[in-house]
């Protein structure tokens, strides 16, 4: 029987709750599609700081290295916000994990489920039935990593804060090629989000993209300033298919899209590098405002599991079965509190997972 090792990093806040729910669904799919999953639990984020003083302990890194993929919940929360910035859970665990494994591409598929039309802030006719947009976000460069970075004394009793937005040709080239390949396999349309009217880095992005585009003549390429992209996403999301963004713009626009789709709790993500190894986590954070209440939406975590099956394990059929089961569960009226409409059948985190697992169809 095919067998895979998955590093299981639930993290903080709602992380452990949505993770438990997702593992239930992934196990059900693995049983149905006849492969075996070994879960290798490890500490990350605030939970790891509390247990051993470090957000990303060595043992966690070793477990990740021994695995086919990393399945992560979320990290961070008010408890750790008073730590120095470089020791805080997100900065001290997620960024180094991405960097260590060279996970430079973050894929965030956003599906506008027709059943969730009423929870979207957009009018239903603007959403389009079943529109789906894929955000490809550069993940290991730009403002989040550029040096110098810090707050420095000016010598006049004040301080100066510096973040550096830096990109090199190769970093842009590899993500551009990946986005082009993805666009080629979809609707052959790629929209690149930048701020080329003011940023030098955007000019380099355009130069590299125009060159890479010559390898993909059948893909139509457009550039859009980020402020305009934010506006167009609200006016007419149907005009987009694949969006390629540098790190910061991708971070922001994918949350905007999550809001348009209905909830941050719905959105999965896959972080990939140059091999099949990847890190899979929902797009949202640790949601401290609802943690421990059993009401968090587990669908983003469950759908991240489907991406893990697809990209790191090559189990496409099982991945599709999970995605179809999520669709069916929504169509059957199940809702967590964040996507509830009047009269809906509102369920908790684990109940939602049980409903999805029950709807996984066997192989044809
Ligand atoms: P957040 O994404 O945790 O929450 C924003 C809003 O979305 C909240 O109202 C929350 O209840 C809601 N939400 C998020 N996920 C949900 C789900 N699955 N079901 C229902 N509702 C959901 O963002 P925040 O409040 O800005 O940050 C909280 C903490 O999470 C911070 O410590 C932050 O640093 C951290 N964070 C971690 C990650 C990560 O682990 N990848 C990402 C973003 C933020």
UniProtKB/TrEMBL annotation:
Cofactor note: Binds 1 Mg(2+) or Mn(2+) ion per subunit.
Names of the cofactor(s): Mn(2+); Mg(2+)
Record pathway: Amino-acid biosynthesis; L-leucine biosynthesis; L-leucine from 3-methyl-2-oxobutanoate: step 3/4
Encoding gene (name): leuB
Location of the protein in the cell: Cytoplasm
List of residues binding Mg(2+): 227, 251, 255
Residues that bind NAD(+): 77-90, 285-297
One example GO MF annotation: magnesium ion binding
Keyword Glycosyltransferase: no
EC number of this enzyme: 1.1.1.85
Complexes and interactors: Homodimer.
Organism: Candidatus Methylacidithermus pantelleriae
GO BP annotation list: L-leucine biosynthetic process
Protein name: 3-isopropylmalate dehydrogenase
Pfam families: Iso_dh
Keywords: Amino-acid biosynthesis, Branched-chain amino acid biosynthesis, Cytoplasm, Leucine biosynthesis, Magnesium, Manganese, Metal-binding, NAD, Oxidoreductase
Amino acids binding substrate: 98, 108, 137, 227
Domain Isopropylmalate dehydrogenase-like: 5-356
Annotated function: Catalyzes the oxidation of 3-carboxy-2-hydroxy-4-methylpentanoate (3-isopropylmalate) to 3-carboxy-4-methyl-2-oxopentanoate. The product decarboxylates to 4-methyl-2 oxopentanoate.
InterPro entries on file: IsoCit/isopropylmalate_DH_CS, IsoPropMal-DH-like_dom, Isopropylmalate_DH
The family this protein is said to belong to: Belongs to the isocitrate and isopropylmalate dehydrogenases family. LeuB type 1 subfamily.
GO (cellular component) term, any one: cytosol
Catalytic activity: (2R,3S)-3-isopropylmalate + NAD(+) = 4-methyl-2-oxopentanoate + CO2 + NADH
Positions of the record's site feature: Important for catalysis: 144, 195
